[in-house]
């Protein structure tokens, strides 16, 4: 019975008095692409990335998180260490909008109402939807628009470190990989089935891209009820 009442307390108090901590803020950094065109370095930002994010801190160890990030993905075969790509000399550049939602886990308690809170590493994962324009390559290397766009489903995997820099501000730096269930982001696989013959590269490996940067968030909300039982 004691645990039943504690459960009710944790369930209803946040709804009635807004006793959770929220964060809203911005992301700024860079992106790089890993696929069938361009270099395959894991952390080598070559395009700017910016966006917005929001968090709902459900406990001192985990938060629900959502974000929208805007960037370009660019690949240049001349920048690759692979001599075959250098000889091929393809190049692509496409704009993306990424919508992501998931959960952030901290390595240590991160209670923003505690004066002892300084900083902690964290992990983030969830699901992404990435909107991109569709292109394809002609055999001579020309990069041609299909005049359509697609959504690529993906999985984000980010590692970061965050710290409180003022009573209501949190600064974080993170590096995040996005594995997508698509091989179309770089134009190596045309979206149209009529152009399947123009596909190239390793069609068994899907596209990846990376975000590296910092976030600055503003926190608000009353002292949370983190019930442990």
Model description:
With 229 residues, the chain is mainly β. The protein has a single domain (2-220), classed as Porin, CATH 2.40.160. Helices cover 10% and strands 54% of the residues. The chain is built from two helices and eight strands, in the order αβββαβββββ. It has an eight-stranded antiparallel barrel. The protein starts with a helix and ends in a 9-residue tail after the last strand. The model is unreliable at 1-19 (pLDDT under 50). Pfam families: DUF6089.
Helix content: under 10%
The CATH class assignment is Mainly Beta
Q: Quick check: average pLDDT?
A: 88
Q: Which structural class matches the secondary elements?
A: mainly beta
CATH 2nd-level architecture = Beta Barrel
Using only CA atoms, what is the Rg? 21 Å
The global form is elongated
Number of strands: 8
Sheet with the most strands? 8 strands, antiparallel, barrel
State the end-to-end distance. Answer: 12 Å
Give me the CATH fold name: Porin
Strand ordering within the main sheet: 1-2-3-4-5-6-7-8
Spans of at least 5 consecutive residues whose pLDDT stays below 50 are 1-19
Number of domains: 1
User: How many separate helices?
Assistant: 2
């Amino acid at each position: 019975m004691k645990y039943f009442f504690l459960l009710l307390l944790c369930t209803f108090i946040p709804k009635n008095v807004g006793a959770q901590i929220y964060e809203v803020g911005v992301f700024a950094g860079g992106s790089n692409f890993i696929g069938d065109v361009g270099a395959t370095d894991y952390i080598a930002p070559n395009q700017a990335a910016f966006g917005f994010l929001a968090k709902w801190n459900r406990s001192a160890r985990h938060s629900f998180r959502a974000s929208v990030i805007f960037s370009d993905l660019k690949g240049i075969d001349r920048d690759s260490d692979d001599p075959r790509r250098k000889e091929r000399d393809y190049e692509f550049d496409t704009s993306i909008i990424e919508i992501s939602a998931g959960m952030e886990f901290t390595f240590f308690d991160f209670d923003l109402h505690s004066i002892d809170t300084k900083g902690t590493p964290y992990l983030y994962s969830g699901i992404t939807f990435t909107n991109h324009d569709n292109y394809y390559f002609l055999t001579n290397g020309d990069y041609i628009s299909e005049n359509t766009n697609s959504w690529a489903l993906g999985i984000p995997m980010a590692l970061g470190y965050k710290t409180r820099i003022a009573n209501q501000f949190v600064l974080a730096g993170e590096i995040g990989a996005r594995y997508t269930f698509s091989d179309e982001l770089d134009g190596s696989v045309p979206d149209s089935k009529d152009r399947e013959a123009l596909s190239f590269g390793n069609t068994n490996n899907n596209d990846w891209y990376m975000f590296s940067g910092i976030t600055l968030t503003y926190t608000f909300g009353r002292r949370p009820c983190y019930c442990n039982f």
